[in-house]
């Protein structure tokens, strides 16, 4: 007669413990997976926070990105250029630590203004020929970018479209016409010249009108601690020649020196239209120094 095995109490307990151990192991594995997931998420958050802090420090103390919205600095800078401005070049002033974050023309976050006279950690003073970003003296909420033309004590004047500094005409040589005011090629070529400042700095300027409204001016005497700024697109630049709108720029209004173009895109294409980038991006302007 065949024997039928009947589990003993100990066997039942052993089987039960086996099931309990298996259940505990499953729960422990799930908890471990969840803990690893939480640890991974926290590590990602820490990396993002660290990256943001590094970006904040770099932007506040070293390099701040700017983009060019107007044609006043053509042909040197084009609308759609993005560049890094060295904040340490001229030391730190009261507008150096203004931090703001915005989107679509609206300011979302603004902080850290520090009001103090002059500049500290003055690495160097602005030099004639520098391309610099500064706060507009008549409205310090606005950033301007122009070229340093007149230093403190200089006498600056325009005569028949020729720049004079301290009574001496700045060398101005006609070169090939400029046809890059529009990426599409529309518009007539514009007369282009090379100017050579007294310290040897050379750059190109445009002269769209033979006698523009600011091609003949009075003689300006730059006050101590101030600078005379001009755009390279001479007939399309509101600069220090317009005393009521811009005027002389105090040293404390300087944000920094424009050093390098790191990105450039045609203004006819939106920065968010990524699919158009291969055709809209100006690849040849990447990492051009100023």
List the uncertain runs. 1-20
Mean pLDDT rating = 82
Distance from N terminus to C terminus (CA atoms, Å) equals: 103 Å
Q: Tell me the strand percentage band.
A: 25-35%
DSSP E strands, number: 17
Structural class: alpha+beta
How many structural domains are formed by the residues? 2
Radius of gyration: 31 Å
Strand count, sense and closure of the main sheet?
A: 8 strands, antiparallel
CATH class of the largest domain: Mainly Beta
Work out the helix count. Answer: 2
Order of helices and strands: HEEEEEEEEEEEEEEEEHE
User: CATH-wise, what's the superfamily of the largest domain?
Assistant: Umud Fragment, subunit A
Enter the CATH topology name of the largest domain. Umud Fragment, subunit A
The percent of residues in helical segments reads 10-25%
CATH architecture of the largest domain: Ribbon
- Taken from the alpha-carbon principal axes, the silhouette is globular
């Amino acid at each position: 007669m065949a024997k039928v095995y009947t589990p003993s109490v100990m066997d039942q307990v052993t089987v039960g413990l086996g099931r309990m151990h298996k259940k505990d192991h499953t729960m422990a594995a799930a908890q471990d997976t969840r803990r690893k997931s939480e640890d991974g998420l926290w590590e990602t958050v820490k990396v993002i926070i660290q990256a943001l802090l590094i970006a904040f420090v770099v932007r506040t103390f070293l390099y701040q990105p700017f983009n060019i919205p107007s044609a006043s600095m053509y042909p040197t800078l084009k609308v759609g250029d993005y560049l890094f401005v060295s904040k340490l070049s001229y030391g730190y002033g009261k507008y150096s630590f203004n931090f703001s974050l915005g989107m679509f023309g609206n300011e979302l976050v603004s902080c850290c203004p520090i009001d103090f006279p002059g500049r500290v950690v003055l690495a160097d003073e602005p030099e004639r020929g520098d391309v610099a970003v500064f706060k507009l003296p008549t409205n310090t909420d606005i950033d301007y970018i122009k070229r340093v033309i007149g230093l403190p004590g200089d006498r600056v004047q325009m005569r028949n479209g020729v720049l004079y500094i301290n009574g001496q005409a700045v060398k101005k040589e006609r070169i090939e016409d400029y046809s890059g005011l529009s990426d599409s090629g529309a518009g007539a070529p514009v007369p282009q010249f090379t100017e050579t400042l007294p310290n040897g700095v050379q750059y190109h300027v445009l002269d769209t009108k033979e006698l523009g409204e600011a091609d003949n001016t009075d003689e300006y005497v730059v006050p101590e601690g101030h600078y005379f700024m001009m755009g390279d697109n001479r007939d399309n630049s509101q600069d220090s020649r317009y005393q009521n709108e811009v005027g002389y720029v105090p040293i404390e209004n300087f944000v920094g020196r424009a050093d390098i173009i790191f990105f450039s895109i045609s203004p006819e294409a939106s920065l968010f239209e990524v699919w158009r980038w291969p055709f809209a991006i100006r690849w040849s302007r990447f990492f051009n120094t100023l």
